[in-house]
Amino acid sequence: MRRLLAFLALCAGFNAFTHAADPITLGLSYPRTGSYKEEGLSQMRGALLAIDELNAQGGVLGRSLRLSSLDDASRPKKAERNVDKLAKEGVSMLFGGASSAVAIAASKRAAEHRLLYFGTLTYSNDTTGKDGHRFMFRECNNAWMSAQVLGQYLNKQLPNKRYFYITSDYTWGHTTESSLRQTTNTQDTALHPSLKVPFPGASLASYQTALTQAAASDAQVLALVLFGEDLVRAMRIAKDLGLTERMQIVAPNLTQSIVEQAGPGLMEGVVGTEPWTWRVPELENSALGKAFVKAYSERYAMYPSSSAASAYSIVQQWADAAKRAGSLDSEALIKALEGHSYTLLKDRQQWRSFDHQNVQTVYAVKVKPRAEVLKDPLKQDYFEIVERLDGGNGLPDLATWQAERRNAGQPLALQ
Length: 415
What we know:
Layout: H1 2-21, E1 24-30, H2 37-56, E2 65-71, H3 76-89, E3 93-96, H4 100-112, E4 117-119, E5 136-138, H5 143-157, E6 163-168, H6 171-184, E7 194-197, H7 204-216, E8 221-225, H8 228-240, H9 243-246, E9 248-253, H10 256-262, H11 264-267, E10 271-274, H12 280-284, H13 287-300, H14 306-325, H15 330-337, E11 341-343, E12 348-351, E13 358-359, E14 362-367, H16 370-373, E15 383-389, H17 398-407
Parallel strand pairs: 1-2, 1-3, 3-4, 4-5, 6-7, 6-8, 8-9, 9-10
Antiparallel strand pairs: 10-14, 11-12, 12-13, 14-15
Helix pairs in contact: 2-14, 3-4, 5-6, 7-8, 8-10, 14-15
């Protein structure tokens, strides 16, 4: 009997050890197809680099990490199904998305599974505003932060100009246009008109019609509140109509992938914002940021984009929180993340407690002339940083956040 008990205890110990040694799975729901697929590919690359680095350091809580990924095609319903599949697979957390509508829908579904969801490219104010909840953490900046730094630059360089807005018809487009109108004092829609184009699935005819109306206006600034391939298509039509020559083009959220798809010649002079570029570690004297740029460039033969940096940072920050909490439990991780301040790929950042928005520096950028871009060894030195906004300056405070939640009929604290 004693031998039997000893044998059973040995088996139980072996099973516990085997279970503890099982890899931890992270779930990435990202656009592998659709208008934002290039941003999605960058997320995948950044995430894999972070996972490999963490595994080389011994993993998290003694266990290695693995990635399980599914294509959301930038469609909210598909993203919700992805969350269900990944939760059933047993993932410990979820991240991804390049559309705010996707991030909002996927994060709410993740909350039903009691899983954390980290938004990568989700710039809508609503993500951590009226649609925010305890299980959502947004790594990138919001639309208001972009508008603040962009407004600072435009008001100095192009004061009192007339704007024409062409906007993606979903939450990111709406809150981005609204925020930029406030910071540039262009709220008068009679003086500064706007047209909406469908998302997803806008046709070339939609862009042609909208841009033809912009060409017929007396606007001096064309604000293209579009993203990914949608922005690229619109820029090609704008070029054909001569708008790139006679109007300042503003694209509130730029990425390296967008310039690559369109070509620096077409995008030359376009002004927008980025939360990170591969030049930022030099500007902010970030040793870890410089190491990331070096590792990513050697691995993929290209510079990392803000999309890649966001996914990399999310994996690293989740891992850091798990180590500090000594747990993979979502409630323990929320406590570890809320209010946590850190430096990683640039200067100091913080996960704000009351809304889970990442407080960070944001940059206004201008696409360099093609001749300058081509001087770089990898031909990817696209952006000149023309304005800088320190972390907390561009964010609404608690009272403003609560007022927005109250107006939307939402609780005044994250649930």
